[in-house]
Amino acid sequence: MKTPLAVLVLPVAILASGAAFAADLPTYKAPAPMAPITPPPSWTGFYIGGDIGGAWASDSVSPTVADGGTFPRKNTLSTSGVFGGVTAGFNYQIGAAVLGIEGDFGGMGIGGSKADPGTGSEVDHLNSGIYGDVTGRAGFLVMDNALLYIKGGFAAFGGDAQTTTGVAGFTVASTGTFTGWTLGGGLEYKFAPSWSAKIEYSYFDFGAENATLTGVAGVFPYKNNLSVNTIKVGVNYFFQ
Description:
Elements: H1 5-24, E1 45-63, E2 75-94, E3 97-108, E4 112-115, E5 123-126, E6 129-143, E7 146-157, E8 161-164, E9 171-173, E10 178-192, E11 195-215, E12 218-238
Antiparallel strand pairs: 1-2, 1-12, 2-3, 3-6, 4-5, 5-8, 6-7, 7-10, 9-11, 10-11, 11-12
C-alpha cells in the first residue's frame, strides 16, 4: 500500500513553520544584578580620639593697687605654641541633626614672659600647662559623611601666671588654675564607618586670676586676664 505524499509532507511543513516562528521570537536577557546599597553612616554612639594643633594666648596683666610704677597700667603678654590631647564623647543623631557631649584633655604649650614697661624691675610670666573642657555639641549633616558643628561649655587651664620683681625681699605667689568657658566649631568627616577626621577652631576665655608680690611694703596683686585661640586637627574612633 502506498502512503499518500501529503501525509509525508504535512509533518515536515509543520516542523518547519514552528522553527521559523521560534526564530522570530525576541530573545530574553536576564537583568544585571543590582549593586548592594550601602546605608549612610550612623553618628550615634560613643567615640574617642586624639588631636593636635596650635594655640595663641594673650595674658593681660594689670596691678590692682599702686605698686610704685605707672598706675593704672596693662602689660599684654602674647605667646603661642603646640596644643592638643585626647577627646571622648557621645553623639545622638536625629535625622540630619547630631547632638552630643564632649570632653577634651591635653596640654597648651603657651609659656612665655615679658618685662612690664610700666616699672623698672617687674616681669610677667605665663607657664604652659594642662587644660580640660566639657562641652555640648550641636551639628547638622551637610552630607551623610560630613558634619558641621558648634560646641561650647566649661574650660580650665592648669598653667599659672606670675609677676616677679628684681627688688629684694618680695615673695612671689602664682595664680593657680584658671577657669572659664570655651566656644568653637568645626567640620568632621567620616571616611569609614567607625573613623572620622576633623578640623576645629576654639576660643577659650579662662577668666581673671590674681598673682601677688608680698614684701615689707605690703601685698601687691596683679590681675591676669587669659584668653587663647586654638585650631586643631584630629581623628575619632566610633564604637559601633
